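Continuing the series of single-chain predictions for the mutant panel. This is the parent chain; the variants come on the following pages.
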Amino acid sequence: MLASDPARWILETAQGWAAAGDVPTVVLLDAAAALARRGHPDADVVRAAQAGGVAVAVHDGALLRRGVAPAAVADGVAVVDLDAVADLVTTGADRALWY
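Parent structure:
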């Protein structure tokens, strides 16, 4: 699942899919990348999704454009490049959703 903005909805949707037995991965892109920052006001949504079985990643380029250093990313959020995002969508997924 790719989230550009707003990420809250897609993280909550992914959590529902995980509860139903899926193994979703959400990649935070564009403005949604801000949620990956430790201390973000909506970081609780990321933590809840992770606790619910959702793998969360953030695009490194989106972090860079927002001035967020990879070291400032919340625990458990993977920092990935565009090649990794493409691999997730093309080879590691039964379906893809971009919101």
